[in-house]
Amino acid sequence: MDKVPFHWQAALDAAGIVLPAAAPPAAAYTPVVVHQGLAFVSGQLPRDETGVRTVGLVGVETTLAAAQEGARLALVRGLAALRDGLGGLDRLDRILKMTVFVQSGPDFVDQSAVADGASTVLFALLGPERGRHARSAVGVAKLPRNAAVEIELIASVRPVAGP
């Protein structure tokens, strides 16, 4: 599986997903750091060109379904950051780990179901084998810009091809 390059753009096209422009950093950090075959993607919020789309405490101010859509959007933002950080998707092998932070109401315990909003996208894009990834879903009290969800990614990348 890992020896054959995956055609990300073809999979995105087939799924009807258009990657947006990557979000510029909002503070003193780098959106993507590549080190020794791994790409670390800074936290991505569920935002589009108008701002953060899914806000508030999940289970109180926003619904599980809205938070799942927010997770999907945050994952797409993460893929856009990878595209820009790697200079394209050709070197991206697979997503190894996803951490999903959910701004949760006091009684909300379905953080994993929120994370499924992003995980199902990876399975749809990559198939059952390559789409498999480690994951954590964590309830938190607050997120930047009152976002309902934030996603971090760790991906494996192939080395830059030589001349």
Listing every helix as H and every strand as E from the N terminus to the C terminus, the arrangement reads HEEEEHEHEE
SS elements, strand count: 7
Unreliable parts: none
The mean pLDDT is 93
Summarize the helices and strands and which ones pair or pack.
Blueprint: H1 8-15, E1 32-35, E2 38-44, E3 47-48, E4 51-52, H2 64-86, E5 92-103, H3 111-130, E6 134-140, E7 149-157
Parallel strand pairs: 5-6
Antiparallel strand pairs: 1-2, 2-7, 3-4, 5-7
Helix pairs in contact: 2-3
Task: Jot down its keywords.
163 residues; alpha+beta; five-stranded mixed beta sheet; two-stranded antiparallel ribbon; 31% helix
Describe the structure.
- The structure is a single chain.
- The chain is α+β, with helices and mostly antiparallel strands.
- Helices cover 31% and strands 26% of the residues.
- It contains 3 helices and 7 strands, in the order H-E-E-E-E-H-E-H-E-E.
- It has helices at residues 8-15, 64-86, 111-130; strands spanning 32-35, 38-44, 47-48, 51-52, 92-103, 134-140, 149-157.
- The strands form 2 sheets. The protein has a 5-stranded mixed β-sheet, covered by helices on one side.
- Helix 3 (111-130) links the parallel strand 5 and strand 6.
- The chain is globular, with a radius of gyration of 15 Å.
- The two termini are 25 Å apart.
- The relative contact order is 0.25.
- The mean pLDDT is 93.
